[in-house]
Amino acid sequence: MSRSRHFTRAATLRQTGSSVTIKHEDLGTFDSEIKKFDKERQNQPPTIARKKRNIKHIKLEYEDQDEEAAGAESVDISENFFPLYNKIKEMRELIVTPVDLIGCVKIPTLLKLITNHYKETGVIRHIEIAEISGLQDELKLIEKHGTDRFSRYQLLVTLLFSSQTKDEINFQVMQALHAHYLQKGYKEGLCIESINDTDEKELDKMIFQIGFHSRKALYLKETTASLQNGDIPDTIEALVKLKGIGYKMGHLILQGAWNKVVGISVDTHMVRLCNMFGWTPKNEKNPDNIRKILEQMLVNHKEMWNEINPVLVGFGQTVCTPVGRRCDLCLLSTIDKKNDVVCPAIDKKLLLRVQRGVEKDDRKIRGDIERLVEYKNS
Ligand code: SF4
C-alpha cells in the first residue's frame, strides 16, 4: 500500500493480532485475562479498572511566574520517562505523521515553494498532502536558505490559526490565503502588508474553516498592525504579548523563525500523554504548568526541548490518539527486555480483541504507519 493511501484510509491494519505479546507480570497470565474478557463481554460490564500506577513523583512548586526562572531548578525525572520516551522516538522513526509534513513549522517552506513556482510560471501550484513526501529535496533546498521576514510572519499566522484546528485544515486555509494574495499582486503572497490591507470581515470569511475564525481574524489584524518594524519579535517575552500568542506558539515561533530554543512548546497531545504516562502530577491539565514541569525535568537535557514536541505530537496524532489508540501496534504494549518498561495505560481489552480476531478496524489513520506495522509483524 502506498504511503499516500494511508492518509486517507487504513482498513486492514488489525492484522497484527498474531504478533501481540503480553509478557509483563503486571498484566496477569494471558489465559486468565481471556476468561475475564469473555465473562465481561457476556455481562457487558464497565471498563476494566486500570492497575494502580506505581511511578515515582516529584513535588513541584508553580508559584514562580518568572520565565527566566523557569527551568532554572532541576527536578527528578520520572523513572519511566527515558525508557518510554526512547521507545516513542524509535516508533517515530518508523511513522510519518501530519506534524512531520504539514505541521505549522513546515508551512512557510511549503508556501515558499508555491511562491517560487508562481514567480516562474504565473500559475498557482496546489500542494496535496500526499505528494509532500516526494517534495523533500525541493523543500530542503528552500530550508537551506534559512528564514526571511515573510516566512517568519507566515509561521506566526499559521500558529495563530492552529489552536482548535487540525493541521490538515490549517494547511488548506494557509495555501488558499497565500494563493489569494499572490494572485492579487502581492509578490510574497501572505505577508504583513497584505493582511494590513484586508478588511477584518473579509479575512474572517477567507478563514472560516479555522476554529474560532472570527476571533482569530481580529487577533491577526491587531497583531499584524502592531508589527511596526516589518518583522515579528525575536524574544518569548515580546511574542507572548501579541494577541492570540501564548507560550505554546511562542516557543515554536522562536524555534522555527529565529532558531532560538528557550523553552518547550506543549500542546494538548503532550498534556494527555504526560498525564497518561505519569510524567507529571495526575490531572495537571494546564499546558503552561506542564511546560514548566518538563522544562524543570529536562533542565540538564536542553537538547530535547526542541525535539520533544514533534516526537510526542506525531505519536499522539497517529498511534496513541485521543480516541481509538493503537495499543496493538504500539511498541510500548510489549515489555522491553532492556528497560523493563511497559506502558501504564495499555488498553488490555483491545489487545485481547485483536488476539482473538474480533477487532475490526476501518478507521482513518492520520499518517503513514506502514513501516511500524511491518516492524511489529516482523
Ligand atoms: S495507551 Fe496504548 S497506544 Fe498509548 S502509549 Fe500506551 S500502549 Fe501505546
From TrEMBL:
Pfam family membership, one: HhH-GPD
GO BP terms: base-excision repair, AP site formation; nucleotide-excision repair
Domain HhH-GPD: 161-318
InterPro entries with a match to the protein in the record: DNA_glycosylase (IPR011257), HhH-GPD_domain (IPR003265), HhH_base_excis_C (IPR023170)
Keyword DNA repair appears in the UniProt entry: yes
Reaction equations catalysed: 2'-deoxyribonucleotide-(2'-deoxyribose 5'-phosphate)-2'-deoxyribonucleotide-DNA = a 3'-end 2'-deoxyribonucleotide-(2,3-dehydro-2,3-deoxyribose 5'-phosphate)-DNA + a 5'-end 5'-phospho-2'-deoxyribonucleoside-DNA + H(+)
Organism: Pichia membranifaciens NRRL Y-2026
Family as reported in the entry's similarity comment: Belongs to the Nth/MutY family.
Cellular component GO terms held in the UniProt record: nucleus
Molecular-function GO term, any one: oxidized pyrimidine nucleobase lesion DNA N-glycosylase activity
SUPFAM superfamilies found in the cross-reference section: DNA-glycosylase (SSF48150)
Keywords for this protein: DNA damage, DNA repair, Glycosidase, Hydrolase, Lyase
EC number: 4.2.99.18
SMART domains documented for this protein: ENDO3c
Name the UniProt record assigns to this protein: DNA-(apurinic or apyrimidinic site) lyase
